[in-house]
Amino acid sequence: MDVLNLIGGRWVEGEGEEFADTNPAQPSEVVARGRYACAREVERAITAARDAAPGWAATPHHARAEILLRAAALVDAAAEDWGAELAREEGKTLPEAVAEVRGSARILRYYASEADRDSGEVFASPRPGESVLVVRKPIGVAGLITPFNFPIAIPAWKIGPALTYGNTVVWKPSSLVPLLAYRLAWALTEAGLPDGVLNLVYGEAEAGSAIVGHPGVDAVSFTGSTAVGRAVIARCGELGKPVQTEMGGKNASVVLADADLDHAAEQVCLGAFRSTGQKCTATSRLVVATQVADELLERVADRAARLVVGDPLAPEVEMGPLVSSAARERVAAGVRHAVGEGAKPLAGAEPLEREGWFVPPTVLDLPGTGVDFWRTELFGPVVGAVRASSTEEALGLADVSDHGLSAAVFTRDLGTALSAIDRLEVGVLHVNSESAGTFPYVPFGGAKQSGFGPKEQGRAAREFYTRTVTVYLGAPA
Ligand code: NAP
After folding, report:
1. Whose CA is nearest to atom 22 of ligand 1?
2. How far apart are CA 277 and CA 262, in angstroms?
3. Most Cβ neighbours (<10 Å): which of 83, 97, 301, 392?
4. Mean per-residue pLDDT for 368-383?
5. Could you tell me the sign of the dihedral formed by the alpha carbons of 97, 103, 107, 113, in that order?
6. What is the enclosing helix (H) or strand (E) of 221?
7. Ligand 1 binding pocket mutation candidate from 21, 179, 223 (most atoms within 8 A of CB)
8. 477: confidence class by pLDDT, cuts 50, 70, 90
């Protein structure tokens, strides 16, 4: 399959370097080929988005919404096929991949429905005959930079709100997943998006930083690692440009002594190993009440050891490969380092000798929270556990992190669940369910080093993709 850049409404090959998108389960298999956009083409994409901005902003919100609805229908209709492509390009299992594609259609429908809720505010004025209106306008051209791990859902939750609120877009997807980017851009153009409203440019870091730094881009929304996100924040700060970043996580699950251990073990495993641990909200740290620690860890390790790892398209497979050889090296090195620091492997840890970027689901019993593992995101199917002798200590250990994306607490006690809301500095908290998982109609994003700027998803997205104008509307004299 050949993929193309989308610039000013035209599908173009790109004048940059050639690339081949390969299957992480069988790296010799090419899933898609294409060429990156060169610097001039990135420039042209930004110009096209600027030129299209006034017309799109002036298009009635319901007309913009109709296009999102048509695109959602196209995405839904293709979900099985695109899900298989997603599994082949990224490595998550087929059911997860199909669910992601369908979830993207749902996100587009949600943002289409914003047309029915589009509103400003009206305030009273102390001055006779005057009202105060707060109206919302698009920000202009949005530069969107997306990661590899949700190749269609994360782009949908940026492009959906950007478009519904009347912005035009220049989008650079992760170079690891160009095919699903092409599919989503195709659905939106096929649905009737006017030329230049959405521009898709393939490229690596250089293309991303060109978008971030370009004066023609009015605001930047980035999702990816904390290191790159901080550089994006710094550059936007220099330029005085609105920026939103969703970054890395090191998410803890806390299993307290009163928890249902079978349920907790199952949920911890889902959080740690689904999508091969490559979710920003994946469970990578585990804090267990000392009284139940051995029992819980035995169940988690047993489940990890029995997980079927293999080709993500095979129906019996429960966990696919990591996305790339570099990811496999990073995860393997992180596990070796943890073992060197005194971690005891309860499951996995040993490299898998097979073709593809596979690693085993790994459970580590850690000597404490002082190890690098507790702080460093590995972004793979590895969970490390410590013990805590009280609820207070457990919540405290979970909070020992520079990251603050997501957490899960397993307890039957309502008071404990409520205290976790105050105690844990995270953007997403699950009580009695795995740390991953998000609905498109509620805010999503992290605290601490995991997120910066307005949250994504739900109505929260409006805070980033619109700006307010406060109008003091006096009666004519
Ligand atoms: P990444 O390496 O930071 O890349 C993210 C995107 O930024 C890619 O499109 C990448 O391009 C681009 N990029 C790289 N350097 C850049 C630069 N200097 N300027 C502008 N753009 C640049 O992240 P990833 O490996 O794709 O994704 C995994 C990370 O994302 C993990 O840390 C995960 O926790 C995080 N994540 C966070 C959330 C959240 O909502 N908090 C959600 C998903 C993932 P290329 O890769 O093509 O070079």
Report:
1. 205
2. 20
3. 97
4. 97
5. positive
6. strand 219-223
7. 223
8. confident
Helix H or strand E segment including 183: helix 178-190
Cβ of 377 below 6 Å from ligand 1 = yes
Q: Is pLDDT of 450 > 90?
A: yes
Whole-number Å distance, alpha carbon 291 to ligand 1 midpoint, is 39
Cβ(175) – ligand 1 distance below 6 Å:
yes
Q: What 3-state class would DSSP assign to 403? A: strand
Tens digit of each residue's pLDDT (9 = 90 or more) over 54-96: 999 999 999 999 999 999 999 999 999 999 999 999 999 999 9
Note whether 37 and 45 are within 8 A (CB): yes
Query: Is 236 annotated in the active site?
Result: no
Could you give the count of Cα atoms lying within 13 Å of 145 in the half-sphere of its Cβ?
A: 29
DSSP 8-state assignment for residue 2 = B
Which residue from 144, 154, 172, 174 has its CB within 8 A of the most atoms of ligand 1, so it is best to mutate? Answer: 174
The candidate with the shortest Cα–Cα distance to 364, out of 349, 351, 352, 380, is: 349
Q: What is the mean pLDDT of residues 226-250?
A: 98
* CA atoms within 13 Å, Cβ hemisphere of 121: 7
**Is the CB–ligand 1 distance for residue 171 below 6 Å?**
no
Return d(Cα 241, Cα 265) in angstroms, integer. Answer: 44
What is the predicted pLDDT for the residue at 37?
A: 98
Spell out the residues 6+ positions from residue 36 whose beta carbon is closer than 8 angstroms to its own: 14, 16, 17, 19, 175, 201, 202, 203, 204, 207
Name the more confident of 353 and 404.
404
> Which among 400, 432, 384, 420 is positioned nearest to 255, based on CA atoms?
432
The token pair that represents 251 in the structure block: 């998410």
Per-residue pLDDT at 88:
98
Please give the mean pLDDT across all residues of the chain. 98
- In total, the chain counts a number of residues equal to 477
Residue 259's pLDDT is what?
98
Residue owning the nearest CA to atom 39 of ligand 1: 246
Neighbours of 127 (CB within 10 A): 11
Averaged pLDDT for residues 88-114: 98
Chain centre distance of CA 79:
19
| Cβ–Cβ under 8 Å, residues 382 and 277 | yes
pLDDT one-digit tens code per residue, 265-282: 999 999 999 999 999 999
Which is nearest to 200 in space by CA: 219, 218, 177? 177
Decide: 247 in ligand 1 pocket, CB within 6 A: yes
Q: Which helix (H) or strand (E) holds 76?
A: helix 61-77
Distance 224 CA to ligand 1 centre (A): 3
Instruction: Indicate whether residue 145 lines ligand 1 (CB < 6 A).
Output: yes
